[in-house]
Amino acid sequence: MSLWGKLFAAGYDKVMAGTEKATLRGLREELIPQARGDVLEIGGGTGANLPFYSEGVQTLVLTEPEEPMARRLERHMGERPSPNAKVLRAPAESLPFEDASFDFAVSTLVLCTVEDQPRALRELRRVLRPAGRLLFIEHVRSREENVARWQDRLNGLQKRIGHGCNCNRGTLEAIAASGFSIARVDHDVLRKAPPIVRPLIVGVAEANGPPA
């Protein structure tokens, strides 16, 4: 548990407050209630998605590998107690679940940070049931060449400041290459965020084929 990890977790909600209000809250309100049945959320962070899960969720498991974040997540879950929800310390690249365990998976601002993105996506595909769905909100590599060049130049700095967050990943393409079909995707921007992390994708991917 690094000192920067502790500081990052302690200040995360304050740092993200402007972007949350300007962009993310509305996107969460639209996307997260679609989750039904048995639901897995990777990288649960401080629990920003918790208020938006609907009564259609039967079980909810949130994984979080960072201990300082997991502790904050557990405190927030305590404010909204549910006997069918729990937190597990686990990385997205090694999910401790059997194949075909979940109806929905949720990833919001996580696939930028996982150490091995293709492996994390394969794990998500593995634990989803046939026709299971991945709901995602992720910042990605820009479709504008000039912005993408700056993302490449500054990615090393972004990773240090953002505690492992990459600003130049082609996440949409990676999802499609991991045994998912893209059912819906919208391109948006993270308002009140630095330009290199503004490009955003919001959507739904379906696990309708064999794992990649």
Task: Describe the structure in your own words.
- The protein has 212 residues and is α/β, with parallel strands linked by helices.
- The mean pLDDT is 93.
- It has one domain (3-207): Vaccinia Virus protein VP39 (Rossmann fold).
- The chain has helices at residues 3-15, 17-31, 67-79, 117-127, 145-161, 171-176; strands spanning 37-41, 57-63, 85-88, 102-108, 128-139, 181-189, 199-207.
- The chain is built from 6 helices and 7 strands, in the order ααββαββαβααββ.
- Strands 3-2-1-4-5-7-6 form a 7-stranded mixed sheet.
Report the end-to-end length measured between terminal Cα atoms. Answer: 33 Å
Structural class call reads alpha/beta
Largest sheet: 7 strands, mixed
What is the N-to-C succession of helices and strands?
Answer: HHEEHEEHEHHEE
CATH homologous superfamily classification? Vaccinia Virus protein VP39
Number of strands: 7
Cα-based radius of gyration, to the nearest Å? 16 Å
> Order of strands across the biggest sheet?
3-2-1-4-5-7-6
- DSSP strand content: 25-35%
Number of domains: 1
What's the overall average pLDDT, rounded?
A: 93
Shape by Cα distribution: globular
**CATH fold-level assignment:** Rossmann fold
Task: Please identify the oligomeric state.
Answer: single chain
Query: Which class in CATH terms?
Result: Alpha Beta
Low-confidence runs of at least 5 consecutive residues: none
Task: Record keyword descriptors for this entry.
single chain, alpha/beta, 7-stranded mixed β-sheet
